[in-house]
Amino acid sequence: MSPASDVFEPYPQAEAVWSYLEQRFGMDPAAFADHRLWQRAAHKGVWLLHAAAEPATDIKVDWPGLAVLRQPLPRGFPTNAFLRRFGFAATRSCVDVDWDTALRLMYNHQIERDPLDDRGGPYAIRSPFGTLGRGWVRHGRLVLDTPKAWANQLLPRTELAETE
Q: What topology is assigned to 93-163 in CATH?
């Protein structure tokens, strides 16, 4: 169990996070005007909560909201969960793929792709049905950071082809 939740405090470098999201992904900081960033003292993660909410102080919680960064900037980058939730708002650093390519990426396949910039990522990987999460281009191949369990939870490719 975590220590008491009163160890959470507003994240002091929130403006740097909003600026990074705007510069890297083209996300308008105004889209987050109703949200606040929080951190746990002596921990690296940064969480997003609605401005009207605060982490509970009478019970123990490990994650008070949506994880935005697992470590602070400049080394940190958006979590998959954050990009799946807000990737629709990205206007830069996006790789839009068709559904077949999205499925291949979710099955941990790598797709040949040139990077969009010198950094090679992170990118918001989007399909026609929504944002898949965070991706990178490494050695000329697009890789989606997917939980390893995803491929086991998806239908086998042969069953998928039969349902189409």
A: 2.30.130
